[in-house]
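Hey, sorry to bother you again with one of my protein questions. A protein chain has come my way and I'm curious about its shape. It would help a lot if you went through both lines with me. I owe you a coffee for this, so here goes:
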Amino acid sequence: MKFIDYYKILGIDKKATEKEIKKAYRKLARKYHPDLNPNDKEAEKKFKEINEANEVLSNPENRKKYDQYGKDWKHAEEFEKAKQQQRQYSQSQHRQSGQGFSESDFSDYFEAMFGGQRTSGGRSTVKFKGQDYNAELVLQLTDVFNTHKQVLTVNGKKIRLTIPAGVENGQIIKIKGKGGPGINGGPNGDLYIRFNITNNTSFKREGSNLYKTVSIDLYTAVLGGSITIATFDGKAKLKIKAGTQNGTKVKLKGKGFPVYKKSGQHGDLIISYQVAIPTHLSAKEKELFQELQKLQ
C-alpha cells in the first residue's frame, strides 16, 4: 500500500492543532468542491484526498495511529496486540527458564502467532489482510427484477458480478478477495458493494410485495365490471364487484417482486382502488344524478 502524506495534502505541519486542521480542510474543501468544479476529474480526485486526510487527522485516535505506523495505521491495534502478547510470552518464558527472551525467540513467537515468514536475514514478517474496498452500484428497480450479470470496474480492475433478482435498496453484499492486496503475503481484502436502487415504476415496493393504486370510474364501482391492469411484468384482468368502495384492496398472489435468492418465488401485488368522481357533468347527467338522489 502506497504511503499517503495526509499532512502534505492539507498543507499543514505535523504539529498542527485540531483548529488548524479544521481550518485547512474547510479552505481546501471549498476550493475543490465538485459543485464549484463541474466535470473536473482532477478536482474531484483532490476533493476525495482532502476528505480522506481530514477523516484521519481530525480524529485524535486515528491521527496517533497514523503518526506512529504510517501507511499501516489501520493495523495499529494488531501491532499493539502483538507487542502485548509478546511481552506476556516473554515474561512467562523468563519465569519458567530464568532466561531472557531473545530476538530469535521473538521471531519464532511472531511466526507462530501471525503466520509470519522468515526473511533472508532471519527476521519474521507479519501477514496482514489487505484493505477492504467499498463501492456503490446505482440501479433501477426494473434492473433487479431478474438475475443478471454486470461488469464493474473497481480501482482499475474489472469484476464480473452476478446480481440476484430481488436485491434490496441499501443492501450490501461482500465479494471475497476483491479488495486491496494483502501485506507481506497476507490475504486480499474484500469488496463491499452497496446497492442504490431507484424506483422508475408506478409501483411501490416493500420487501417482495408490490403496491399500486388503480383508478376506476364511478359507474364501474357502483355497477361492477372488469378492468385490465399492468403488473410488473405483464397484465392481469380483474373483476370489479358491484358496490366497490374507494380504497378497497385486492391481493394478486405471486404477482409481486422476486424473493431474494429464492428462485421462482415472488411476493404479492396489492391493488388499491381509487374511485374517480366524475366532473364537468352535462345537464342530462346532473338531472339523472338528482333523480338517483331522490330515490335515496
The domain at 204-295 is CATH 2.60.260.20 (HSP40/DNAj peptide-binding domain). The chain has four domains: 6-58, 75-125, 133-198, 204-295. The chain is about 35% helix and 25% strand. The radius of gyration is 32 Å.
